[in-house]
TrEMBL record:
Protein name according to UniProt: Serine/threonine protein phosphatase 7 long form isogeny
Residue span(s) of domain Aminotransferase-like plant mobile: 53-358
GO biological process: meristem maintenance
Signal peptide: none
Biological source species: Cajanus cajan (Pigeon pea)
Length: 388
């Protein structure tokens, strides 16, 4: 394997697993089940949620996140490219997936600005209460609190599972403006960051949006909700992904309401959530959009973006600090990739892309799967050389 693309491989969890390290099952952070779902919410409140852009989230039935499935996916996540490296090529969670699975708006102003303000005054003004200082760790008034719980519990979960950052509350002041903002790209930026951090073997948990990760896996692959917990589950998922073929993906038909922002789904742009900036490389997964996949250009690596945090930056205006990335996002309509349509998402073993990909990937995570896969791969290569 050439390491020109996967420059972080020595620090990646797959390196530890390959070298015999103990399996790591991440704790996926999320809130407990809410008693209110879409059908239980009063009509007046539903209208407010619709205006704010969060009604789609209330339509998702509650389910337990599978820590083993998420952990197996993280083993294939590449922080260099924001891709899952599967045997058939690169794939990822795209802006399209966020729009369809979570019902969040994609095309709109980014979620950024000042990350600190007078929290007590803000909570009093928007939620109608003045919380004790100890709580400030990190009709309409009630609805704002409901949205804030969704943000902190399911979309932008932190590593406490109990608190939500009040920096998001300021965006709920004007519900109509809130509904036109790009909450989808904000959630995806945060999820990319959490996936990148979780590829470090020493990390034991992952926050962000576990429901997005699991829905994406269920939506794209022939995976079913597990019936029981077993210690071997992560091994089974790992073997499943090691043997995965492109044909195993499900190609669903999209309902019309999902297409509102489809014109920017194929944009290669930075995703922004205050200090977090992560690139959405649509050009690397053209097959997910039904188009021919070319050999992609090297990914963009802005210096030290992963090292940025909110600590000690109370007076930072992140919209100014990241003005370059904000401008790139604002030009998203001009950064849309297109390719000729393809008849099938499957690429042959000897195709130009697959030849390139095999030189730049970690095809198998476990040695046991590698032995089996190598035999199959060798036999296929011999057949192609002798008969084609």
């Amino acid at each position: 394997m050439q390491d020109l693309l996967l420059r972080l491989q020595p620090f990646h969890i797959s390196e530890h697993i390959w070298n015999g390290a103990e399996d790591r099952v991440l704790k996926v952070r999320s809130a407990k089940q809410s008693k209110l779902r879409g059908g239980d919410i009063p009509a007046a409140v539903q209208d407010l949620l619709q205006r704010a852009g969060f009604m789609g989230m209330t339509q998702i039935s509650y389910f337990l996140v599978d820590n083993h499935l998420i952990s197996a996916l993280v083993e294939r996540w590449r922080p260099e490219t924001h891709m899952f490296h599967m045997p058939f090529g690169e794939c990822t969670i795209t802006l399209e997936d966020v729009a369809i699975l979570l019902g969040l708006k994609i095309s709109g102003a980014p979620i950024t600005g000042y990350a600190s303000m007078d929290w007590g005054a803000l909570v009093q003004r928007l939620l109608g209460m003045t919380p004790p200082k100890a709580m400030l760790v990190g009709g309409r008034l009630r609805m704002r609190a409901f949205i804030l719980r969704m943000i902190g519990g399911y979309l932008l979960t932190d590593h406490s599972s109990s608190f939500v950052s009040l920096r998001y509350l300021s965006f709920l002041e004007d519900l109509d403006v809130c509904g036109q903002m790009s909450w989808g790209s904000c959630v995806l930026a945060n999820m990319y960051r959490e996936l990148c951090v979780a590829t470090n073997y020493d990390h034991k948990e992952i926050a962000g949006s576990g429901i997005l990760l699991q829905l994406w896996a269920w939506w794209n692959y022939a995976l079913h909700k597990p019936r029981e917990e077993t210690k071997e589950k992560i091994v089974k998922y790992r073997e499943y992904f090691d043997r995965l073929k492109r044909e195993d993906e499900l190609l669903p038909t999209l309902p019309p309401y999902c297409l509102e922002d489809s014109h920017v789904w194929r944009s290669t742009v930075p995703l922004i959530n205050f200090h977090i900036v992560e690139y959405h490389y649509a050009d690397r997964v053209m097959r997910q959009f039904g188009m021919v996949q070319h050999i992609p250009a090297p990914p963009i690596h802005p210096e030290k973006l992963h090292d940025l945090s909110l600590r000690g930056k109370d007076n930072t205006d992140w919209s100014r600090m990241h003005v370059q990335f904000v401008q790139e996002w604002q030009s998203r309509h001009h950064r849309v990739w297109t390719q000729p349509a393809c008849d099938t998402p499957h690429l042959s073993y000897s195709s130009e892309y697959m030849v390139w990909y095999r030189k730049h990937t970690r095809r198998w995570i476990s040695p046991s799967s590698a032995k089996e896969g190598y035999v199959v791969s060798t036999n296929l290569r011999m057949f192609l050389n002798n008969y084609l």
